Amino acid sequence: MLRIAVPNKGSLSGPAAEMLHEAGYQQRRESKELRIVDPENEVEFFYLRPRDIAIYVSSGRLDIGITGRDLLVDSGADAEEILALGFARSTFRYATKPGTVHTLADLNGRTVATSYEGIVGKHLKDNGIDASVVHLDGAVETAIELGVAEVIADVVETGTSLRNAGLEAFGDPIMKSEAVVIRRTNGAEGADENVESKVQQFLRRLQGVLVARTYVMMDYDCRVEQLEKAVALTPGLESPTVSPLHNEGWVAVRAMVPAKEAQRIMDDLYDIGARAILTTAIHACRL
C-alpha cells in the first residue's frame, strides 16, 4: 500500500482532508484516529503533527506526505516538494519597531526571534547576514518588548497582530508558503514500480481536484456566423466541443473556462448573441 502522511490538526488538517475526499480517498471519521486504511485505493493514511511529517517522509518510512512549504524548509529534512496544493497560503516576514530596521543588511549583529529557526537561519546564511537566532515556540511578537530580540520573523497574514504589538514588517518576504505534497529527495529514483505508479495516480487525482476547483464547464448556443468570436472567448483547454442544433444556423458550444472569469465571459458571449449560457461545477477531471 501507498503510505501517506496527513496533518492531524491545525490549518492544514481540514482542507487536506477535504481535498483527499474530493480526490476519492477515504478519510477518518474521528479526530482521534491516527491511522486508517483505504483498501479500495490501496492507500494507508497516517495522521501526524504537521511539523513532523517531513521528518517521517525523509526517513523513507512513509512514501509521501502533505505539509506546509514553511514546515518542510524549517525541518531541514531530506525531502522535496512535488506538488503545490493552493491552500493554507501564508507569507513569512521580518518585523520590528518602526524606524529601527529598514533593510536585510541592517540585521547584521542583531538578534532575531522566531518559531521557524530553520527557515530564518537558512535565509540569513544565504544572504550573508551575521545575526543571532532565538527560538520561541509562539507569541514571538512579545520578544521585542521583553528584550529577548530586536527583530522577529513570523507568518504575516493581515498584519493586524503586528500592528497591535506596535511592530511593522520590513524588507522582502522571506518566503511564501502553502500546503504541498512532499516525498523523500530523489525518491522516484529506484522506487518500487508499484509504489511509484500509486504516487503518480495520487498526484493526478489531486491535480484533477485543483483543476476542478479552478474551472467551470460553460455551455451556450450561438449563431454559426458568430462562432469564431465565441470560440475566441472560450477556447477551452484543447478546443471547445461544437455541435449542430436542430434549428439550422445555430450550434451548441461546450468549453472549460476559468471560474474567476466566468461572469465576464458570460457577459461577452451574450453581447455577441449567444444564448442559453450555463455554467456547471466540475467535481473531478484528468488532463
UniProtKB/TrEMBL annotation:
Listed EC numbers: 2.4.2.17
Protein name per its UniProtKB record: ATP phosphoribosyltransferase
Keywords: Amino-acid biosynthesis, ATP-binding, Cytoplasm, Glycosyltransferase, Histidine biosynthesis, Magnesium, Metal-binding, Nucleotide-binding, Transferase
Encoding gene per record: hisG
Cofactor: Mg(2+)
Gene3D superfamilies the UniProt entry points to: 3.30.70.120, Periplasmic binding protein-like II (3.40.190.10)
Recorded metabolic or biological pathway in which this protein acts: Amino-acid biosynthesis; L-histidine biosynthesis; L-histidine from 5-phospho-alpha-D-ribose 1-diphosphate: step 1/9
GO molecular function terms noted in the UniProt entry: glycosyltransferase activity
PANTHER family: ATP PHOSPHORIBOSYLTRANSFERASE, ATP PHOSPHORIBOSYLTRANSFERASE ATP-PRTASE
Protein purpose: Catalyzes the condensation of ATP and 5-phosphoribose 1-diphosphate to form N'-(5'-phosphoribosyl)-ATP (PR-ATP). Has a crucial role in the pathway because the rate of histidine biosynthesis seems to be controlled primarily by regulation of HisG enzymatic activity.
Family membership noted in the UniProt record: Belongs to the ATP phosphoribosyltransferase family. Long subfamily.
Main location: cytoplasm
Enzyme class, UniProt record, top EC level: transferase
Domain Histidine biosynthesis HisG C-terminal: 212-283
Pfam families attached to this UniProt entry: HisG, HisG_C
